[in-house]
């Protein structure tokens, strides 16, 4: 009988402690593609989010609550992705979401979240998202192009641009923005082409670029298409005719393009793994220490979940809670510093640093930075 | 003029490489009637041969033997464990090889990861050819393919082995009665077909992205080639490659890439509908 | 067992068919070296099924088959061919998409040999069409091609299923000559035929089939033409 009492007492104590811990954790849903074409970015996204959560917890958590990350695979059609997210939110009690996925999934999610749960969207995207309680960390076309196009046109003495991208809204919106900045820089657009995702042969496009006389190509092809295009581009010696600027050529894509095929290839983004700023080097050191040398290489997409959590931390600190409405109210002007530099929330997006990297050597070398670049007007 | 010449060379390149990539499928599907949905995966594994060679620390010259050996072993195991139960069962073979394609893709992803592999071109740069700058690697590959297809055509017309293969395809019962060990011959044909697919992947590796999913790019176009040209003959393979590769390149250049893709899709549907045996069919 | 020589091909209690359907039941027979066994019967009584069972084209339901002292009951077509059993099937008897020459060269026979040359040359219709596709030949010509192929092969035992079907009389006479020669050289032959005169000229033993049963089994010398015609008219 006495033994029974001890057991009951111990059990109560354990349950009580668990309850305390439970009360102090904030479940955050991290929606990343683990399958499908975006699956390549799953591991780096997951690692970056994990590292950010551990570091934030070490300094006190989100508004006093420890972060517990729950990952959901959204490398699936939007309807399935929504089911995954709803399961995390309604079923598992997730308090806020970090999302690193395509725009189709984002739009579907926003429709169901309806501003009732904070949602930080982190990857490069086409801009224009302004829904309630949605917060954007990723680069917009304005950010990637406005300072970069005039600068690179002058540096490389190029003026005749050929725009090539996959056929969906991100490339089209990027190029719409690009045309304005090209004209402003005194250049002209000599060709524009959008290819379905099924295309993996670029001979005909290269022939067009060649005869157009372009001396610069703006690439908004994604993933494998970008690799195939750039390899073919180099094999025809087109790198002598024109420079290349990409707004989504990250570290994996550059490896695929390969050394020797990347001469005069530039990339514009808010993050490169080879950034040499102290905070960026600190991230790489912590990342390598935590996940080892063989871990998935960081890049502007994968690393964005790290900044997404930093933004959530800053928002929660100012609002004093994770309440969607409170965050929405607190958002404007919230500022945080991370591996990408200092970012300030302006119109649900962040004004942040943008870097231009040269991929000629087969790895990115950051050659220019622009600080506090405005995300443009996204709430029209 | 220069444009026309470039278009001509590009078209020849597309046709020749498509013909070579589709050859493996023409062998396995056209001769053995195994509807090989894993064809693209053998192309993909072939494209990994340079990666394997580098990881083993071997000289780049070993890429071809590494490719033949690795695909040969995989294809042999597939034939013994799976494929041999599916001769004469064309629809079942589709399902079985579809499963096989998933398995092979997963295995490659487990071994090498999902990320793009960097394959360095053995012959970078361009040379002046007929007055235009054209990639040296492509010209060398084109010359190689010309020799290969010439030898193959002669061999297929004249050798005893080719005659035995044709006999087995035409009449398996009589072939056995005439002393042809069809079980072994079909296994060999399957393995050789897969090795050819792998070699086509190796050929393309310096020009394309290399990752576990590239097989899907090639499977459909290869089926289109066979649908258009017809099964079981080199002539059919040739006609199919010229049709699909040529139409896609020329329409793609004149209108748009989307137009080129749609055209070959329409042509293939048209043929499946009205002439399912293809243009060149002996039966 | 005539003349004391042991049979080269022997089968007993043989039954078989296609899937669930048993076509032949309890057939037996044996042939020695240098002998020809003729099989007669009307259409659809199971003659071709017997050829298929003997050659291993279809599996045996019950019974045993011995080929040169080896039990081959469970062996397939190719394995029996390796043991020296040649086969000219009734239908699809040639490789349609191959030329006549290729149909013959498959066997790996050296056509330069005198014996092979003579066999081929005796059928000028075939030699004229050496480079024509076998699929373009007439029914009778195909039968001749199939007959020549199977005789050219280095086999000791041969199963011929309706070799004279559609063949002109002059060529049937030639076939008879070649069959006699084959016998003399010690080959063992099973001929399934409806052509009674061909059987009469070459067969040493005759089996008659009707409705899947053996209705006759005797030495040729013991049978009259009426007996044979009787089997065809049951």
Brief account:
Chain B has 283 residues and is mainly α. Chain B has 12 helices and 2 strands. By secondary structure, chain C is of the alpha/beta class.
Name some characteristics of this structure:
heterotrimer, A: 380 residues, alpha/beta, Rossmann fold, 9-stranded mixed β-sheet, 5-stranded parallel β-sheet, 14 strands, B: 283 residues, mainly alpha, two-stranded antiparallel sheet, 3% strand, globular
Please give a structural write-up.
The complex is a heterotrimer of chains A (about 375), B (about 280) and C (about 230). By secondary structure, chain A is of the alpha/beta class. Chain A has helices spanning about 1-25, 40-60, 80-90, 105-115, 140-145, 150-155, 170-185, 205-210, 225-235, 250-255, 280-290, 305-320, 325-330; strands at about 25-30, 65-75, 95-100, 120, 135, 160-165, 190-195, 215-220, 245, 265-270, 335-340, 340-345, 350-360, 365-375. Chain A folds into two domains: about 10-140 and about 275-345, Rossmann fold (3-Layer(aba) Sandwich), CATH 3.40.50; about 145-270, Response regulator (Rossmann fold, 3-Layer(aba) Sandwich), CATH 3.40.50.2300. In chain A, the strands form two sheets. In chain A, strands 6, 7, 8, 9, 10, 11, 12, 13 and 14 form a nine-stranded mixed sheet that branches. In chain A, strands 2-1-3-4-5 form a five-stranded parallel sheet, sandwiched between helices. Chain B is mainly α. The mean pLDDT of chain B is about 95. Chain C has about 230 residues and is of the alpha/beta class. Chain C has a single domain, classed as Rossmann fold, CATH 3.40.50.300. Chain C has helices at about 45-55, 75-80, 100-105, 115-120, 125-130, 140-150, 170-185, 195-200, 225-234, and strands spanning about 5-20, 20-30, 35-40, 60-65, 70, 85-90, 155-160, 190, 205-210, 215-220. In chain C, the strands form two sheets. Chain C has a six-stranded mixed sheet with strand order 6-7-8-3-9-10, with helices on both faces. In chain C, strand 9 and strand 10 (about 215-220) form a beta hairpin. The chains are: A alpha/beta (about 375), B mainly alpha (about 280), C alpha/beta (about 230).
């Amino acid at each position: 009988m006495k033994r029974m009492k001890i057991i009951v007492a111990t059990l109560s104590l354990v349950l009580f402690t668990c309850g305390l811990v439970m009360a102090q954790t904030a479940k955050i849903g991290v929606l990343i593609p683990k399958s499908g074409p975006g699956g390549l970015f799953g591991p780096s996204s997951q690692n970056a989010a994990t590292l950010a959560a551990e570091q934030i917890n070490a300094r006190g958590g989100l508004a006093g609550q420890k972060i517990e990350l729950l990952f959901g695979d959204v490398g699936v059609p939007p309807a399935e992705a929504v089911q995954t997210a709803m399961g995390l939110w309604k079923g598992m009690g997730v308090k806020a979401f970090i999302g690193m996925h395509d725009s189709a999934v984002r739009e579907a999610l926003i429709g169901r979240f309806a501003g009732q749960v904070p949602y930080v969207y982190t990857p490069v995207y086409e801009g224009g998202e302004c829904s309630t309680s949605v917060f954007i960390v990723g680069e917009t076309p304005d950010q990637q192009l406005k300072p970069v196009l005039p600068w690179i046109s002058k540096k490389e003495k190029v003026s005749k641009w050929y725009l090539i991208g996959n056929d969906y809204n991100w490339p089209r919106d990027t190029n719409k923005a690009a045309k304005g900045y090209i004209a402003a820089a005194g250049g002209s657009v000599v060709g524009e082409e959008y290819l379905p995702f099924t295309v993996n042969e670029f001979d005909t496009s290269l022939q067009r670029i060649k005869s157009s006389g372009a001396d610069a190509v703006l690439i908004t092809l994604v993933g494998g298409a970008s690799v195939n295009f750039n390899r073919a581009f180099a094999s025809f010696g087109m790198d002598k005719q024109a420079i290349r600027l990409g707004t989504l050529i990250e570290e994996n894509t550059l490896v695929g393009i390969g050394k020797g095929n990347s001469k005069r290839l530039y990339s514009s983004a808010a993050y490169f793994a080879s950034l040499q700023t102290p905070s960026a080097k600190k991230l790489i050191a912590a990342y390598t220490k935590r996940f080892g040398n063989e871990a998935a290489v960081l890049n502007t997409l994968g690393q964005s979940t790290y900044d997404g959590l930093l933004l959530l931390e800053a928002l929660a600190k100012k609002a004093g809670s994770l309440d969607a409405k409170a965050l929405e109210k607190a958002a404007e002007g919230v500022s945080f510093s991370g591996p990408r530099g200092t970012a300030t929330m302006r119109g649900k997006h962040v004004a942040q640093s943008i870097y231009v990297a040269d991929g000629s050597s087969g790895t990115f070398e950051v050659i220019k930075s622009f600080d506090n670049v405005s995300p443009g007007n996204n709430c029209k | 003029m220069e444009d026309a010449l470039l278009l001509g060379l590009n078209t020849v390149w597309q046709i020749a490489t498509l013909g070579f990539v589709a050859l493996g499928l023409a062998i396995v599907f056209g001769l053995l009637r195994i509807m090989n949905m894993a064809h693209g995966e053998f192309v993909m594994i072939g494209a990994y041969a340079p990666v394997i060679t580098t990881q083993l620390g071997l000289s780049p010259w070993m890429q071809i033997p590494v490719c033949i050996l690795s695909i040969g072993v995989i294809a042999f195991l597939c034939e013994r464990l799976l494929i041999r139960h599916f001769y004469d069962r064309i629809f079942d073979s589709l399902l079985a090889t579809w499963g096989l394609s998933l398995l092979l893709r997963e295995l490659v992803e487990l071994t090498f990861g999902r990320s793009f592999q960097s394959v360095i071109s053995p012959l970078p740069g361009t040379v002046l050819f007929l007055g235009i700058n054209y990639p040296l690697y492509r010209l060398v590959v084109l010359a190689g393919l010309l020799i290969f297809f010439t030898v193959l055509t002669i061999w297929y017309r004249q050798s005893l082995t080719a005659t035995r293969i044709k006999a087995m395809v035409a009449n398996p019962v009589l072939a056995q009665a005439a002393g042809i060990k069809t079980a072994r011959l079909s296994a060999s044909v399957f393995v050789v077909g897969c090795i050819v697919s792998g070699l086509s992947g190796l050929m393309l590796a310096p020009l394309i992205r290399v990752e576990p999913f590239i097989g899907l790019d090639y499977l459909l176009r290869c089926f289109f080639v066979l649908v258009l040209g017809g099964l079981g003959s080199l002539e059919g393979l040739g006609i199919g490659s010229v049709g699909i590769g040529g139409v896609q390149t020329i329409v793609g250049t004149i209108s748009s890439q989307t137009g080129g893709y749609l055209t070959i899709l329409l042509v293939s549907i048209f043929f499946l509908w009205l002439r399912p045996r293809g243009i060149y069919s002996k039966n | 067992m005539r003349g004391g020589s042991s049979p080269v091909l022997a089968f007993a209690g043989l039954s078989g068919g296609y899937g669930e359907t048993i076509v032949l039941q309890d057939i037996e027979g044996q042939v020695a070296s240098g002998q020809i066994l003729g099989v007669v019967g009307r259409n659809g009584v199971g003659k071709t099924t017997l050829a298929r069972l003997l050659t291993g084209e279809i599996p045996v339901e019950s019974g045993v088959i011995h080929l040169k002292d080896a039990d081959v009951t469970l062996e397939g077509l190719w394995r029996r061919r390796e043991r020296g059993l040649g086969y000219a099937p009734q239908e699809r008897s040639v490789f349609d998409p191959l030329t006549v020459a290729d149909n013959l060269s498959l066997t790996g026979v050296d056509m330069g040999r005198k014996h092979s040359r003579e066999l081929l040359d005796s059928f000028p219709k075939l030699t004229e069409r050496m480079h024509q596709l076998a699929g373009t030949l007439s029914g009778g010509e195909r039968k001749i091609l199939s007959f020549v192929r199977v005789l050219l092969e280095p086999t000791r035992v041969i199963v011929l299923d309706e070799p004279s079907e559609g063949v002109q009389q002059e060529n049937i006479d030639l076939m008879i000559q070649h069959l006699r020669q084959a016998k003399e050289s010690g080959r063992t032959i099973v001929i399934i035929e409806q052509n009674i005169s061909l059987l009469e000229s070459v067969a040493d033993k005759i089996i008659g089939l009707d409705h899947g049963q053996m209705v006759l089994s005797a030495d040729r010398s013991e049978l009259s033409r009426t007996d044979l015609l009787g089997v065809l008219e049951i």
